[in-house]
Write a structure and sequence with these properties.
Elements (H helix, E strand, L loop, with lengths): L2 H15 L17 E4 L2 E5 L12 H14 L14 H14 L3 E5 L2 H12 L5 E5 L4 H9 L3 E5 L4 H9 L7 E6 L11 H10 L2 E6 L14 H4 L7 E6 L9 E5 L1 H10 L1 H4 L6 H16 L2 H19 L3 E2 L9 E7 L1 H12 L3 E2 L2 E2 L9 E6 L6 H17 L8
Parallel strand pairs: 2-12, 4-5, 4-6, 6-7, 7-8
Antiparallel strand pairs: 1-2, 3-9, 8-9, 10-11, 11-14, 13-14
Length: about 400
């Protein structure tokens, strides 16, 4: 055996013993937001982040095809060399208008944004204050920066205030939070958080990947849902969820965007976003603003699912101040979470098991995401499946 194969085999065995070894799902194709084709089965899916149900929308597909014909299959280089096509600048203008900012900058992915923005704006004397429930890309961005990072308890502004008050000698302060937390389904208390940031002269870096398109009037995001606007909030988002395309963006003051063009390494040293993705995103942004019924439908479906699961005795995370499409069901151990996920799969329902390191040990859960494509009968069918699991799964104690 090669020397490296031995330590890989040992690590695999360790993860398998913890029921924490991952494999790629065998999906053979998808339909809009709600159906996964697997072998001879059509599986009802609550795993997709296609919140608005636009991934297969005819107009979105048409605009992607048109961009493909006009601009080709790739951007052919960095935005600073050959990759700065007209459609990307159009997308950035549309994003800035949608988000109510002076400008925006598009990256190849949301992960690219989070690993490069904090590194670009910090020095070794800077302090970052990051919510404990933040996404892995934010964690990696903090690690890649030169700043000292402080972790505050999830949505605990008293703890954040203590850390800010003890922050001595920092040349710059940044509070980093998700708008809608991807695994807890709650929202950041942005009004109070922004007040705290202004008191301590900190910039708020708001990752609104799961709020963009879903929250606020015209889907402008979590900041808009609270009717807030501030130059001291830099909005980060993705085009791969409600916008149903691919890519990431930063929206904020023009001076910030110009600075990032010069300093954000993941922007400078990556090929520009694929034109077809940009075309799809432009059309999806238009639809997201015009079709308010999609957000209303999501809200009704998520609330029905959340309340139905609570009535069955499941431990469902509270959505908090504002309702979101994410409905997490806490099970606890990896083993029991996988059992429940498999029991749902056996009833042709896909609700993925979320395990460490995505969530803290002992808090494994099922994460259900409601889409505008889901039907009322989908919710009823899923609740019936959860009821059968509670009654039939031997040894299951994941309800509270």
């Amino acid at each position: 055996m090669s020397y490296w194969k031995e330590w890989i085999a040992k690590e695999e065995e360790r993860l398998r013993q913890q029921d924490n070894w991952r494999i790629l799902p065998s999906n053979q194709g998808t339909a809009p937001g709600r159906i996964v084709q697997n072998a001879n089965h059509k599986i009802l899916s609550f795993a997709s982040n296609d919140y608005l149900g636009l991934a297969h929308h005819p107009a979105v597909i048409e605009q992607a095809q048109q961009a493909l014909k006009t601009y080709g299959t790739g951007s052919t280089g960095s935005r600073l060399l050959t990759g700065n096509s007209k459609i990307l600048t159009e997308l950035e203008r549309a994003l800035a208008v949608w988000k109510g900012t002076e400008a925006a900058l598009v990256f190849p992915s949301g992960y690219h944004v989070n690993i490069s923005v904090l590194a670009a704006v910090t020095t070794e004397l800077s302090h970052i204050f990051s919510d404990a429930a933040n996404h892995a890309s934010i964690i990696d961005g903090c690690r890649l920066s030169r700043a000292k990072t402080f972790i505050y308890r999830h949505n605990d502004l008293d703890h954040l205030r203590q850390l800010l008050a003890a922050s001595v000698g920092a040349d710059r302060r940044f509070i980093v939070t998700e708008g809608v937390f991807s695994m807890d389904g709650d929202v950041a208390p942005l009004p109070d958080l922004l007040d705290l940031a202004e008191e301590y002269e900190a910039v708020v870096v708001l990752d609104d990947a799961h709020g963009t398109g879903v929250m606020g009037i015209k889907g402008r995001g979590t900041l808009a849902a609270f009717q807030l606007q501030s130059d001291n909030v830099w909005q980060i988002g993705t085009l791969s969820k409600a916008v149903a395309a691919q890519g990431g963006f930063v929206a904020g003051p023009r001076s910030l965007i110009d600075y990032l063009v010069n300093k954000a390494r993941a922007f400078i040293f990556s090929t520009g976003l694929n034109p077809a993705a940009a075309g799809a995103a432009l059309e999806a942004i238009h639809i997201a603003q015009e079709e308010e019924w999609r957000r209303e439908h999501i809200q009704r479906g998520a609330e029905s699912l959340r309340q139905g699961l609570k009535d069955l005795g499941y431990h469902v995370f509270a959505s908090g101040i504002l309702a979101t499409p994410i409905v997490p069901v806490l099970i606890g151990s990896n083993t029991e979470t996988l059992k429940v996920a498999q029991a749902l799969w056996d009833q042709d329902i896909y609700a993925p098991a979320i395990k460490p390191p995505t969530v803290p040990p002992g808090t494994s859960r099922l994460r259900l995401a409601v889409s505008a494509a889901h039907h009322e009968e989908d919710i009823a069918r899923t609740l019936a499946a959860f009821r059968r699991i509670k009654d039939d799964l031997v040894g299951f104690d994941g309800t509270k």
